[in-house]
């Protein structure tokens, strides 16, 4: 087996179309077919079920798909390591970040990296925590930054920052007028939350469960900005990171509820595959991350 054949196989498995695969890889369609045929011959198994209407990967094809992603990553990393055997930091670094981190925390670090390593090409993918963990697992990004939890045992997870969240509303909300708000005051309120797979959304669900809160209504929006705009227009309460609401609170567009004896804190973490541990650009990023936030708790 060799790189071009595996790259062709992975692309075909993802787009499920020979013509599109040929276009993406800039090769002829017969070349795509030949690569697949050679792989099937070498492995002595059918990798795809073909019909005029659909293309479906077989169970043995699924096994190869996961392994092929790893082999391609190792090969490409090896090429980059050889090219970068001297001390300069350059080439690509693909960073995955959950929404809160990617939109409000990561930009300051990106500025430092661009200043210190001008030859480093940074690519940032933003999604919810579940999506970023999946991207790390499938080697679609080199390292991920998440605000939720992950049970992926094959990944290495390290805390880099403590994040505090606040219950917020429009300044005109009845609870925003109070000098102090209790957990009991939060019963039967309208809430706006993030989607399934979001670390922030999961944390709010945890608050509901641990405090026995009943919800009058629940609106789900897959955007921090969308949630803020909804609150500003007078719709209910939400739980958001300090970094997300800081500017809006300063401009008096949102109000923080003054909770009695309650704080909401969580740990933000970086996550990567062990295969990436020795990658020079990943090491550089982790070093810059820890330098940017040196006083926060670091744990594995």
Structure description:
The protein has 300 residues and is α/β, with parallel strands linked by helices. It folds into 3 domains: 81 residues, Arc Repressor Mutant, subunit A, CATH 1.10.10; 97 residues, Periplasmic binding protein-like II (D-Maltodextrin-Binding Protein, domain 2), CATH 3.40.190.10; 99 residues, D-Maltodextrin-Binding Protein, domain 2 (3-Layer(aba) Sandwich), CATH 3.40.190.10. Helix content is 44%, strand content 22%. It contains 10 helices and 11 strands. The strands form 3 sheets. Strands 3, 4, 5, 6, 9, 10 and 11 form a 7-stranded mixed sheet that branches. It has a two-stranded antiparallel sheet with strand order 1-2. A two-stranded parallel ribbon has the order 7-8. A hairpin with a 4-residue loop joins strand 1 and strand 2. Helix 1 crosses helix 2 and helix 1 crosses helix 3. The protein is elongated and about 75 Å long. The model has no long low-confidence stretch (mean pLDDT 92).
CA radius of gyration is: 23 Å
Shape: elongated
Q: Proportion of β residues?
A: 15-25%
How many helical stretches?
10
Note the gap between the termini: 37 Å
Residue share in helix: 40-55%
- What string gives the helices and strands in order? HHHEEHEHEHEEEHEHEHEEH
Provide a compact summary of the structure.
The chain is α/β, with parallel strands linked by helices and 300 residues long. It contains ten helices and eleven strands.
Topology, please?
Layout: H1 3-15, H2 18-25, H3 29-43, E1 48-50, E2 55-57, H4 59-83, E3 91-98, H5 99-116, E4 120-127, H6 129-137, E5 143-146, E6 156-169, E7 189-193, H7 199-211, E8 215-220, H8 224-232, E9 237-241, H9 242-250, E10 255-256, E11 264-272, H10 280-292
Parallel strand pairs: 3-4, 3-5, 7-8
Antiparallel strand pairs: 1-2, 5-11, 6-9, 6-10, 6-11
Helix pairs in contact: 1-2, 1-3, 1-4, 2-3
């Amino acid at each position: 087996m060799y790189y071009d054949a595996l790259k062709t196989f992975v692309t075909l498995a993802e787009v499920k179309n020979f013509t599109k695969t040929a276009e993406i890889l800039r090769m002829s369609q017969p070349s795509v077919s030949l690569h697949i045929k050679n792989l099937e011959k070498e492995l002595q198994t059918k990798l795809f079920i073909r019909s005029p209407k659909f293309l479906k990967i077989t169970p043995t094809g699924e096994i190869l798909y996961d392994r092929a992603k790893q082999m391609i990553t190792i090969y490409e990393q090896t090429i980059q390591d050889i090219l970068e055997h001297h001390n300069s930091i350059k080439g690509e670094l693909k960073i995955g970040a959950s929404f809160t981190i990617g939109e409000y925390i990561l930009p300051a670090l990106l500025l430092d990296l661009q200043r210190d390593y001008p030859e480093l090409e940074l690519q940032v993918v933003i999604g919810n925590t579940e999506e970023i963990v999946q991207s790390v697992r499938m080697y679609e990004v080199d390292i991920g930054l998440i605000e939720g939890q992950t049970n992926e045992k094959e990944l290495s997870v390290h805390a880099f920052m403590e994040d505090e969240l606040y219950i917020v509303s429009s300044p005109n909300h009845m609870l925003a007028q109070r000098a102090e708000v209790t957990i009991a005051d939060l019963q039967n309120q309208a809430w706006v939350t993030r989607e399934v797979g979001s670390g922030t959304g999961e944390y709010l669900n945890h608050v509901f469960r641990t405090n026995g809160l009943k919800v009058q209504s629940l609106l789900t929006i897959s955007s921090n900005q969308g949630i803020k705009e909804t609150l500003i227009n007078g719709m209910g309460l939400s739980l958001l990171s300090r970094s997300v609401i800081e500017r809006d609170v300063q401009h008096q567009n949102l109000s923080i509820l003054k909770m009695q004896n309650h704080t909401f804190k969580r740990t933000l973490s970086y996550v990567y595959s062990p295969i990436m541990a020795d990658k020079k650009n990943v090491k550089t990023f982790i070093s810059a991350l820890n330098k940017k936030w040196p006083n926060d708790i670091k744990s594995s």
